[in-house]
Amino acid sequence: MTPLLEVDNVSAAYGAVQALTDVSLRVMPGEIVTLIGANGAGKSTLLMTICGAPVPRAGRIRLAGEDITGEKTHLTMRRGVAQSPEGRRIFPRMTVYENLLMGAQALTTGDPGPQLEQVFTLFPRMKERLAQRGGTLSGGEQQMLAIGRALMSKPRLLLLDEPSLGLAPLVVRQIFGAIRQLNESTGLTVLLVEQNANQALRLAHRGYVLVNGRITMEGGGHELLARPEIRDAYLGGG
Ligand code: ATP
């Protein structure tokens, strides 16, 4: 089977700062894959590189077998890749409804209705808060909105950058539960990057570990979680 996403020996840098070195990973259709790593390991850079900026210095990125290396972000979005970025980046002065509609811009069908229903099923709170300004939502609600906005484009690959950041363990469980539900009910493919190794690896079919811009380990989610070196280095995040 062709992987939905293939990152093949990718290196990326910001000027003299080497952020990724020879990174290879793959995400099969229907999988949840988690990439864990500490602050500054290069997790966000990898997601941004998949979305076209920075352009890799070496290596190739393929979506369903098609080369998308260095492609402009809006073109990659149109192919069905959506990202919920680190720090959520919702529009604080816009309402929940307006934020969600912003995510529907890449929708090729034009009618955002079915996607809105999907977001409401997943996060009923968003339906209750449709008229509320994004900036006044709680941290957990803002995360739900950021994921909801990404889903509005009906993606085939959802990229999630540290959805658990700054949230209480109970809220993290809710959000990860929603991601699992979505994956099980629709088969949506997810690449999740996280510092919170515990819950993120429990959720994942497979995982990778990124250290200083290099992949150092890969395996099944539970298998990685059981490794002593992972427990020592990454567990403690709840
Ligand atoms: P965090 O969890 O703290 O967000 P991360 O794993 O997502 O970390 P990146 O944000 O990808 O890590 O950063 C990887 C490296 O690239 C770091 O050394 C960082 O300082 C550097 N870096 C990131 N963005 C830039 C930039 N715009 N210009 C220069 N260096 C950058």
From TrEMBL:
Cited InterPro entries: AAA+_ATPase, ABC_transporter-like_ATP-bd, ABC_transporter-like_CS, BCAA_Transport_ATP-bd_LivF, P-loop_NTPase
Question: What superkingdom heads the lineage?
Answer: Bacteria
Q: Which of UniProt's keywords are assigned here?
A: Amino-acid transport, ATP-binding, Nucleotide-binding, Transport
| SMART domains with a match to the protein in the record | AAA
Q: Which GO terms describe its biological process?
A: L-amino acid transport
The Swiss-Prot or TrEMBL record describes its family as follows: Belongs to the ABC transporter superfamily.
Q: Output this protein's name.
A: Amino acid/amide ABC transporter ATP-binding protein 2, HAAT family
Please report the organism this UniProt entry assigns to the protein.
Answer: Belnapia rosea
